[in-house]
Design brief:
The protein is an alpha+beta fold. It folds into 2 domains: 6-125, Rossmann fold (3-Layer(aba) Sandwich); 134-304, Sandwich (Tumour Suppressor Smad4), CATH 2.60.200.40. The protein is 29% helix and 35% strand. The protein has 8 helices and 14 strands. The longest helix has 17 residues, at 20-36.
Length: 321
């Protein structure tokens, strides 16, 4: 043994949760240092702007870290995942999550209840292999881009809501902030005309309220967009909502999406697959991934089975029949 302690790098977004992350982090950091004292050293890097977490995660992965911990919201986690994958280090570097944001969709799927629970999970060191998504899209300047996501990517109403939330205060908290933005967005929303292919088969062509490519079960601050999705099944659950009236969206679909009952609506289809392509039929359509505005169509996404080593609770096992 070399005697060199393991290096854990925590990448902290102080702006997560409308600044609540900065206020909560010192206490969480103390607990994390105590929990990891017998295993190694903790280095903390604070982000200052967009893509900082990606750069820091890449540097940490290439610099010998055994684990990179994303302390922030779903967007921070997404950037950290992108950095580790871009470094080609997903096989050697574990990922951890300390939820400090407003949405909390990925930790909800993973079974992490709060920041204190996350510290305990990281200290225990149990790992799960989970999938990730790779996506190709077009940026605002029309250039082809490649990226990654941990939880989901989507277009249509959900992407417009994410764009609105990103420009507004999240002081109300995840559920309230996203629900309020959804209602306001619906008022001016027009469905997008798209062609959706899943594993090369056309599953939708025409107007769509939303198309969600789900790795996890939740998005938009506790909306159960894909109730049967699993992080470790090697496939996406692709949720396509056809053209739906605004009154129906507000009165019926929006409330039911929090329980997952929206998938029973005749205008909603769920298709499972490994590869997804979305082509806009009436001009570019805005995209989002893990709650952050990404770019625009055309979109191509593929699942990366078991690509990530995640420090996580043991998955709940369904009882035997």
């Amino acid at each position: 043994m070399s005697g060199v302690p393991d290096l854990f790098v925590a990448i902290v977004n102080p702006e997560s949760g409308s600044g609540r992350g900065a206020r909560r982090w010192p206490v969480i950091e103390g607990k994390l240092r105590e929990a990891l004292a017998a295993r190694g050293e903790l280095e903390v890097v604070a982000t200052r702007g967009p893509r900082d977490a990606t750069r820091a995660a890449r540097e940490a992965a290439l610099g010998g870290a055994v684990a990179v911990l994303a302390a922030g919201g779903d967007g921070t986690l997404s950037e950290v995942v992108a950095g580790v994958l871009a470094a080609g280090a997903a096989e050697t570097v574990a990922l951890g999550l300390v939820p400090l944001g407003t949405g909390g969709d990925y930790p909800r799927t993973l079974g992490i209840t709060d920041a204190e629970h996350a510290v305990d999970v990281i200290a225990r060191g149990n790992e799960r292999r989970v999938d990730a998504g790779r996506v190709e899209y077009v940026d605002d300047e029309g250039r082809a881009r490649e990226g990654w996501f941990a939880n989901e990517a989507s277009l249509g109403l959900s992407a417009e809501v994410a764009h609105r939330v990103s420009r507004a205060s999240k002081r109300l908290g995840g559920v309230a902030a996203f629900a309020q933005a959804a209602v306001r967005t619906i008022a001016a929303f027009r469905p997008a005309a798209v062609r959706v292919r899943v594993d090369e088969a056309v599953v939708h062509e025409g107007d769509a309220t939303l198309v969600a490519i789900a790795n996890g079960r939740y998005f938009g601050g506790a909306m159960r967009i894909a109730p049967d999705a699993r992080l470790d099944d090697g496939a996406f659950d692709v949720v396509v909502g056809g053209e739906l009236g605004k009154a129906e969206l507000v009165a019926r679909l929006l409330p039911s999406i929090y329980t997952g009952r929206h998938v029973e609506h005749p205008g909603v289809a769920v298709v499972r697959g490994r590869r997804v392509a979305v082509e806009a039929l009436r001009g570019p359509v805005r995209l989002e991934a893990d709650g952050e505005t990404l770019g625009a169509t055309p979109l191509r996404a593929e699942v990366l089975p078991g690509a990530l080593r995640f420090l996580a609770p043991e998955p709940r096992r369904r009882p035997s029949p």
